[in-house]
Amino acid sequence: MLGPASAQESARVPIPEPAKGRGEACVADTELMRRDHMNMLTHQRDDTVHDGIRTETFSLKGCIDCHAVDGPDARPVDISSPQHFCRTCHDYAAVKVDCFQCHASKPGEADKTAAAAPHDADVAALSDYLEGQGQ
Amino acid sequence: MSGERETAPGRAKDQAAEGVEDTRRGFLKGLTAAVVTLAPGVTLMAYPEGAAAARAPSDAVTSKVRWGLLIDVSKCPDGCTDCVTACNEENGLGPVTRPRTDAQWIRKVTVRDPSTGLKRSFPVMCQHCASPPCVDVCPTGASFKRADGIVLVDKHICIGCRYCMMACPYLARSFVHEPLQDQKPYAPRGKGTVESCTMCVHRVDDGRIPACVESCASSGKAMVFGDLNDPDSEISKIVRTYATSQIRADLGLDPGVRYQNL
Predict the structure, then answer these.
(1) Hey, is the C-beta of A107 within 8 angstroms of any chain B C-beta?
(2) Which of A22, B56, B106, B125 fits B197 for a cystine, CB–CB 3.0-4.6 Å?
């Protein structure tokens, strides 16, 4: 786990500074997102691919749209740039992310809208699911 | 006949401007004077009817719907490839420079009866079988049929063995041999996985029609998309009224894609 508070105290350890999202708040608390974002995405991917459930709260497309980071040309960077939102932490933690071999790593031309507002009920339900799974 | 197809009653959802994508808006703008003569509240496109069009994004697909496609071969001109172009554009497929290996979700096929010389040209894509052989042979469960009859590959669990490509009698599937960049956000594709026509599942889930059908509506008007389980849908009415056929019906796979005047 990344320990931001303790890491900030000891300046010897550089910590990643992922860019802020474009929306007002993320779909869940930062701590939950740090720990469980991959589980949220996996859960959502099965719902979407197999059952056609296309809610936006936990969709990868929603993450990408909101967390797009603009490069020097004022256009969102893709995963090849170290500034990409996912890469800032994943490079630091040396965890390879496979999503973007297939998925678009920057918003599409028509996807300039801000991400969907978080739905508290959705977050609570998924949080319960993930916590139940861990036991 | 074609006039009827164009003037299906509009749905409240379609009239909400926020749900209309730029591409569709552009398409409507590009249409000719026929638009002007239509009454307000009447859309030009035949929209998917029945439960799925009204399905909320949080609801799972159900088997109450069976999506189907009807292609009137007599209206499909030799040399027209608008559906193929629209498919490539929609799903981010590159131009086919190496036909043996490049991804092709729709092929324009020309057949000729040697005894009479009769020639027909028509598109062949994944036939979305009710009993898909690709699903039978898949060792990982990646190849699957959605409850509403759309046959898909779950690329998260596809291992790229290509058994499904061998099993498909329609040569409908392609393998991605090389790394890809700049995929469409709604149509993920990647090296090492098998892919095929998805019936534009991202559009269908959004209450829209597949890209090929939309492009055909502005050229040959040969394609109709709809719910085969809904007796009131346009496609159901046509298949009930006129003789239509399935390719290789003898295999008993019950494809969801049907052909008229073949």
Answers:
(1) yes
(2) B125
